Amino acid sequence: MAVSITPPKKTLENRETFEKLSPTSGENLGTFPIGTAEDVEAAVARARKAFPRWRDMSLDERFTYLQRARDIIRQEGERYAQIISADTGKPLVDSLMTELMSIPLFIDYYEKEAPKALGRQRLLPQLLFPGKTSYIEHFPRGVVGVISPWNFPFQLAVVPMISALIGGNTVVLKPSEVTPMTGELIRELFEKAGFPPGVVEVVQGDGSTGAALTAADIDMVFFTGSVATGRKVMAAAAEKPIPVELELGGKDPMIVCEDANLERAARAAVWGAFLNCGQMCVSVERLFVVESVYDEFIKLVKEEVGRVRVGCPDEACDMGPLTFKGQIDVVEEHVEDAREKGATIALGGKPMDGPGQFFEPTLVLDVTTEMKIYQEETFGPVLPVIKVADEEEAITLANDHKYGLTGSVWTQDRRKGLELASRMESGQTSVNDLVLSVGNPALPFGGVKSSGFGRYHGHEGLYTFMNQKAIMAAGGRMNVEPFWFPYGPKYPTMLKTFKSLLGGNMIKTMKHFWGLIRMTQKRD
Q1: Which pLDDT score, from 0 to 100, does residue 1 have?
Q2: Which segments of the chain have a pLDDT < 50?
Q3: Which 8-state DSSP code applies to residue 490?
Q4: d(CA 164, CA 146)
């Protein structure tokens, strides 16, 4: 596919650069600059300068710019999909469905919900605060640094960016060096949408550029990536300190119950494992199958794996190559470790012949808990299967893991499905479905345990990028409050109020408290 996008030549003059190679053919698709600490500081300074104007705009004014961005994506979606697919190797359907389609949905959702979520909220009056009205407000954090990954380089950058922008923050994005073409596409999007200078800054580069961003004068870091790098980001942010949201890895369990629709579950398991070549933090990476339906289910899974079409990112293929070349070594290591420890490689198991970073769709049976393929995130086209005696064993094993991002339960008994879903220790859980909940703009997304912390999407996805302010306003008619000095004469009445309050007698509490108010208003 002859698609490429490169930065203006002036950005490459006298600069350290890196080359972008096609994951499907190995050809050079472009040369990109490695942003220095000085580049990052300059970008942050521009974002800092732009912040007051952007902060002081109304929500409607900010959405005018976001609506333009939404319309550009709708108009140029085919070209955008081609560039993303060339950059990542993923099929065009995946680029449209998982990268681009969700952005207009999120903008439309927040256009309706942001006024309610970010507007001043009046609380109900409280017993011992008569004459006072309480409110909650939100105001932007300031300059937000977003460090995005290579597996969904458009969606996992743009969704947190627009969430931060809606609340009045400015954003500095450091895209992954593995997918720099998409980073330039994001720069183009916000420039074409006419965002004021400095409101959105994009700095290409490698790990040193990301480290410089976390060390710069920003007010928050939003990081999506590996656990190891997430720890470094958190440590750097703690030096200031500034808030951090970490969206990290997963080893997501799928539980197939005895009464599941096996055909649906088999198709879902294969799609959930091999979508985006398995390079998802929400991939099915541990498939638990109840023993009574195991043989029938595995037969269906094998048939589905055999139907997966692997190839270049055109309309016909289902699965492309691994985006990051180094990931091939990880996948091979996990498969070989499983083989050595007694697992059965039922299908696939090795890189494919020919050019590109292609790996066979791989089905691994007889997986046990001591294997790397069970313990660590594989992030490749591998489906590990674990046979369990019953659903109780499945939920115990699912929860006994360091990761807790998403999971799914498959049963035709919705009540049982919801019960098991509630017991699963994860940030999101689905019943008879998987992956798609991530694209629901109303559902908060994020993990527990080593999968990170914080939430975005939904109302929480706006609050992530906001400071919260509590306001309590008094009418000001009383000259003195009952809790103010002098204390001495108030003690007996205060004691009665205290005892009746703790005793749960609200009538006596109010009687004593109003006596305290009357006493307070008397002047010596």
Answers
A1: 45
A2: 1-2, 524
A3: G
A4: 10
pLDDT given for residue 477 in this prediction: 87
| 191 in catalytic set | no
Distance CA 312, CA 30 (A): 19
Q: Which residue in 281, 285, 377, 391 is the catalytic one?
A: 281
Annotate 199-255 with three-state secondary structure: CEEECCCCHHHHHHHHHCCCCEEEEECCHHHHHHHHHHHHCCCCCEEEECCCCEEEE
Joined together, the tokens standing for residue 288 give 């638990």
CA of 260: how far to CAs of 266, 298, 455, in Å? 10, 13, 31
All residues at 6 or more sequence positions from 106 whose CB lies less than 8 Å from its CB, including other chains: 159, 162, 163, 441, 457
Q: Counting beta carbons within 10 angstroms of the beta carbon of residue 97, is it exposed (0 to 12), middle (13 to 18) or buried (19 or more)?
A: middle
pLDDT of residue 134: 97
pLDDT at 8: 57
User: What is the DSSP secondary-structure string of 343-396?
Assistant: -EEEE--SBPSSSSS-B--EEEES--TTSHHHHS---SSEEEEEEESSHHHHHH
Instruction: List all residues 6 or more positions away from 191 whose beta carbon is below 8 Å from its beta carbon.
Output: none
Query: From CA 172, how far away is CA 436, in angstroms rounded?
Result: 28
The three-state secondary structure class of 434 is coil
Amino acid in the structure at residue 318: D
Q: How many Cβ atoms from other residues are within 10 Å of residue 344's Cβ?
A: 13
Torsion of CA 193, 195, 197, 200, to 10 degrees: -100
List, as one string, the DSSP characters of 92-123.
HHHIIIIIITHHHHHHHHHHHHHHHHHS-EEP
Cα–Cα distance for residue pair 90/84, rounded to 1 Å: 8
Q: Which of 427, 409, 426 is CA-nearest to residue 418? A: 409
* Active-site residue, 137 included: no
**377 to 148, 272, 287, 425: CA distances (angstroms):** 18, 15, 14, 17
Instruction: Tell me how far apart the alpha carbons of residues 147 and 208 are, in angstroms, rounded to a whole number.
Output: 12
* Each residue's pLDDT tens digit, 114-123: 999 999 999 9
pLDDT computed for residue 248 by the predictor: 97
Q: Phi and psi for 64 in degrees, rounded to 5?
A: -60, -45
Q: What is the CA radius of gyration of the chain?
A: 27
Residues 6 or more apart from 119 whose CB is under 8 A from it? none
| Rounded alpha-carbon distances, angstroms, from residue 266 to 260, 275, 298, 367 | 10, 14, 8, 18
Catalytic hit among 184, 201, 245, 247? 247
